[in-house]
């Protein structure tokens, strides 16, 4: 197997707390669980979050909470008084800060500058400096671009940019040199880091970061912006709106400035022109402002940045390259050229990273908790005879084709299994014709609910398999729940005709951008384990899991 099993994301991944197995064994879930144990937001930050979520909380309560952390108070005042916020007068206490900024921006500052200290310890200074350069450049760029666009969400965009790379920080902390060397190899080959993470690990640092932020109960709107604003979300720029579009612009510009990816400059300019009329005239001013405020922010946070940065010179080099390419016959190919991914995937750094993640999840992660297998006697005593759930070669072939299509479209794939409980009893009482009616009903419901993106196939006699492209875990569970509810209502109206109370169980397995290393049978078996767990709970239950 080329990599470790895959994990799903958010938009490409949504954390579905209500319908999952008791413990999720996927690598990213284990890394999130590990991060939750090792890194937590400071008490003051968590209390501020709770207070600001309470509409009855007062400014005085919030101020008193923050003042219990003198270091946090000083840090907030330093930031508020820096040119980053451009206030006309000096702010000397939190009362003034609240009066000038309002509760929302102040809350975001508290969250943005409350990263656990443990995350920053033990990482090599040079590597940490590179991390801060990219994260801070992205944060400042997001705020400045929002201002250029005439938007009033600059503060929120700033915090989204600052927190958006936290997944990379977790990987640096947990995987050490293996991840740092892999990231350097990616930069050396001018490949895309997230894409290479997907190819080798089956998830990327954006997913990991979003899941960790969700586990800290940060605002879902903030997590959604971070999720959508990252290129690895698979959402085209033209479909993005508001802060998500601004953060995508900031990410691409940070790639040019911090990682020297000059070939991304044309894409950035094209996207910027779609949101700002006189984009060309403002780029130079934008870059100057970013570099100036970047050093101010680094000083406020007491972090070090790499020496010798000159963003204006980098942009000049990018413009020169664009000019040279425009004069070349191969210009269109050169501008959009995709670096050779195989050089990274086959590199020793990639295998070292894969091995490190496997060791981490084997030794420090959460072991999978699978349903205890019942004896045939126990099954017979509880539910009567049941039909085996199996996938024939045709079904596995269709699942594989659907997964391949999802992979080519860089979108989610979910497999839902729905079975009739106590099938033998249903068959004897209602008759074989009703089984076919049930299948047709499920297929019609799925087609309507999925806008034609779902496909239903028989799975043994008692079950159906529902293949859902472009459906993440949350969407697939929701659809499966609607199927079960609608079929149950239908059966209740026909109970006198059927002569049996129909109950169903559902199991959902999801993979986002399924890697080539994930066989169709593996995702089928994961869904099967879920449906067995759901059957334990009686009628009309669903369990779900994100595939290894």
Explained architecture:
It is a single chain. The chain is an alpha+beta fold. Helices cover 61% and strands 7% of the residues. The chain has a 5-stranded mixed beta sheet with strand order 2-3-1-4-5. The longest helix has 24 residues, at 125-148.
Topology at a glance:
Blueprint: H1 27-38, H2 43-53, H3 59-67, H4 70-81, H5 94-101, H6 103-112, H7 125-148, H8 154-163, H9 166-175, H10 177-188, H11 193-201, H12 205-215, H13 220-229, H14 242-259, H15 265-273, H16 279-301, H17 311-326, H18 331-336, H19 341-345, H20 348-363, H21 376-383, H22 393-409, E1 412-420, H23 423-430, H24 432-449, E2 454-459, E3 463-469, H25 473-493, H26 495-498, E4 504-512, H27 520-536, E5 541-546
What are the key terms here?
548 residues, five-stranded mixed β-sheet, 27 helices, 5 strands
Strand content: 5-15%
Category from helices, strands and their pairing = alpha+beta
Terminal CA distance: 12 Å
Calculate Rg over CA atoms.
26 Å
Q: What is the typical, i.e. mean, pLDDT?
A: 76
Q: Give the overall shape.
A: globular
Sheet with most strands: strand arrangement = 2-3-1-4-5
Provide a quick synopsis of the model.
The protein is of the alpha+beta class.
